[in-house]
Amino acid sequence: MDNYHDSVEEYFRQAAEKVNNKIVMNKRIYGGAPCIADTRVPVYAILEMVEAGYSHKRILKAFPLIDKEGLEAALRFAVLVMER
Hints:
4 helices, 2 strands, mainly alpha
């Protein structure tokens, strides 16, 4: 199981690099869940809002700490991870 966990972490790191490290993983923040850099906003929270039909404008209003670039990075990161 450790090899699987390590490979997932490495894959996430590679995806984060592809979005200019706008997505970070820190074990002390949400147990290492991917978050938008310089915030505690996890990518999964953004995805839940998209799933619920929220517009980008409404998501940005709900999370004033993130900007358009951070939102786009979160969405692109999710795509990169899911393409695996």
